[in-house]
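Email to the structure team, subject: DoxX family protein model.

Hi all, the expression group asked for a predicted structure before they design truncation constructs. Nothing fancy, just the tokens so they can compare against earlier work. One-line instruction: predict DoxX family protein, return tokens.
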Amino acid sequence: MQDIFDLIGRILLSFIFFFEAYDYFAFEQLNRRAMTIYGITWNQDFLLYGAIFLLLFGGLMVLLGYRMRLGAIMLLIYWVPLTFIVHDFWEEVPGTEDYRLQSLFFMKNLAIMGGLLLAATHVSGRYRLRRLFATTRVRG
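Reply from the structure team: attached below.
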């Protein structure tokens, strides 16, 4: 049962990163405008496509359980700065809708960071890519 829960957890954790990578690609101009609003004007192409790379490959590594520690670190490299730049609820007026919404998003991202830290220190279970390759016998 533990191996199945491990697989389901990796699937659920990785989906948010795939969705975010899709969003960055599909709505590239909107994301560039958002970057400008948040004061991120240095080399936007590099940062945007770098984020897509980290999200896709980090998410894939976590999903497949292959080099999961590296994948989790790649995702944290993206996720930590994003959380503190975009969801800065402490800049909002307490008690307002923006304060409430940004603080919820900030806490959600903290929970995702916790999941990534667990993934970085965890060896994935039976259902992982490396184990599949190690147990598959090819006859020639």
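The chain has six helices and no strands. The chain has a mean pLDDT of 90. Ping us if the truncation boundaries need rechecking.
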